[in-house]
Amino acid sequence: MQPESTLKASPASWHANLTAKHWRTLNGAFLGWIFDGYEALALIVILPALMHSVLTPAQAASRPIYIGLVIGITLLGWGIGGLIGGTMADYIGRKRMMMWSVFLYAVLTGFTALSQNVWQLSALRFLTRLAMGSEWSTGIALIAETWPKEARAKGAGFLQSGFGWGTLIAAVIWYFLGKFDPFGADNWRVMFVVGALPAFFVLYLRRGVDESEKWIEAVRNRRWGATEVGLAQKASGKRPLTLKQIFTEREAARRIVLATVLSIVTIVGWWAVSSWLPAYTASIAVASHVANVQGWVSSVNITYTIGAILAYLASGFIIDAVGRRWFLFLTFAGSLLTTILVYAWVDTVQGMQVVAPINGFFTLGCAFGWLAIYPAELFTSSVRSTAVSFVFNSARLIAWFFPILSGTLIKSFGGVSQAALIFGSVYVLGMILPWFLPETKDHDLPD
Questions:
Q1: Can you give the pLDDT at residue 423?
Q2: Which sign does the torsion angle of CA 108, 105, 263, 267 carry?
Q3: Distances 319 to 150, 323, 423 between C-alpha atoms, Å
Q4: Mean pLDDT of the region 260-281
Q5: CA spacing 20 to 30 A to 80: which of 136, 267, 295, 446?
Q6: Burial classification of residue 423, based on how many CB atoms lie within 10 Å of its CB (0-12 exposed, 13-18 middle, 19 or more buried)
Q7: pLDDT classification of 57: cutoffs 50, 70, 90
Q8: Per the confidence metrics, is the pTM higher than 0.90?
Q9: Inter-residue contact 88 to 134 (CB < 8 Å)
Q10: Residue 9, pLDDT score
Q11: Where would I find the H helices in 55-186?
Q12: Cβ distance 119 to 334 under 8 Å?
């Protein structure tokens, strides 16, 4: 007879209990997030060329403001769409919502290639992100609810890496478009045409991905509590509105507020600070009189993204090793330090090439990696997609204004670095708040 300790031993490795079904679920969410990442960075890297095409000479005098406007409108649509779609996924299912999200944003991205002025562009960016918003939260909910406990954080990290691979694809395609210049001033339109390809991916979602059994069971058994505390206190009955539910249960409301503020720190930090990295690199290259300015910008974009991808892939392993709260603290501390390095210390493109992947590891990789892992562990299956979506997308509804504000500050200060350092101070808040949230390392999901 084997000793009790052996019978209770955990699997030999984190992936021992994974099946083909688990990997198909990951593949479905992963592929959708690849194109989401592609579309996000595509806008950033093409903005200088795009603005040259859509701005009038009078508007070009205020280029940073219009760049901030386009980014801000994009975030606003993303936030509204995510809140609506994420909530709907708790009512109609994760798979069905993801299919509609992928299809609509692919079609609208293709139409963006036809933009003739900044107002058409802004309207299409808003509609595209409105459609795209729920794709992330539904994928996160699917992975959290289908993967076993010992692999859950790793699977979420792998899923989040899809965003990094998408941004890398965007950076590489833009690099070669700049190198060979096949369409001249209209090269930026090609980027949006490529972004329309996910429409065909819906066929895979229909065949390869199953609905979450945890969500089906929670709805069938009328388990409406938003957290494990709510499940213990509330009896089954008529289903309350999920968005209302996460704010009427005291513990759920506390968690949602703290997690949302941390999400705001992440999103403000990236869109108001790191999204200006290509423009800042270009200004350094011009000031240094280096050859092939665009080549250096593309190269820095690629190395920054590689750093982020490494963080995505490692985040599940790191967060399981050190715990959720320590991971958040180290993430925001690293983001603050590398922001200072980039905007206050680096003054050559060669130095930027060295620092960019380190900055990407923290400000894009780890800073978004926790969002794929931690919020889903704080809420139950009946409200999980709503809660995860609220944490991620309500932050966009607050943060959408900061790119516009940073664009105004850049014009006022006469440069990117001063504005970036001001907004980078938000990372201090991210180092404090994690200690007021529960540690979920090695815990089962609240069902």
A1: 80
A2: negative
A3: 12, 5, 26
A4: 85
A5: 446
A6: buried
A7: very high
A8: no
A9: yes
A10: 46
A11: 57-60, 63-92, 94-112, 118-132, 134-146, 149-180
A12: no
Residue 439 near residue 325, CB atoms below 8 Å: yes
Tell me whether residue 87 is exposed, middle or buried, using C-beta atoms within 10 angstroms of its C-beta: 0 to 12, 13 to 18, 19 or more. buried
Give the tens place of pLDDT for each residue, 306-351: 999 999 999 999 999 999 999 999 999 999 999 999 888 988 999 9
With contact defined as beta carbons under 8 Å apart, do 38 and 167 qualify?
yes
Rounded Cα distance, 232 and 219, in Å: 17
Closest alpha carbon to 195 in 43, 403, 325: 43
Predicted local confidence at residue 411, as pLDDT: 64
Reply yes or no on whether the pLDDT at 1 is more than 80: no
* CB neighbour class for 276 (10 Å; exposed up to 12, middle 13-18, buried from 19): buried
Provide the CB-side half-sphere exposure for 429 (13 A, CA).
16
The DSSP-derived string for 13-57 is STTTT--HHHHHHHHHHHHHHHHHHHHHHHHHHHHHHHHHHHS-H
Q: Which two tokens stand for residue 31?
A: 């592929």
Measuring CA to CA, how many Å separate 89 from each of 128, 135, 153, 218? 19, 10, 21, 13
- The C-alpha atoms of residue 45 and residue 43 are separated, in whole angstroms, by 6
Nearest to 225 by CA among 187, 251, 258, 188: 251
**275, 71 in Cβ contact below 8 A?**
yes
pLDDT given at position 6: 42
Please write the tens of the pLDDT for every residue from 17-39: 999 999 999 988 888 888 888 88
Q: In the numeric block, which tokens belong to residue 330?
A: 């180290």
Q: What is the DSSP letter of 18?
A: -
The residue to which tokens 């709805």 are assigned: 219
Predicted confidence at residue 373, as pLDDT, reads 96
Who contacts 190 (Cβ-Cβ below 8 Å, separation ≥6)?
113, 173, 177, 182, 183
Enumerate residues 6+ apart whose C-beta is below 8 A from 244.
none
Distance CA 315, CA 164 (A): 13
**Cβ(81)–Cβ(89) below 8 Å:** no
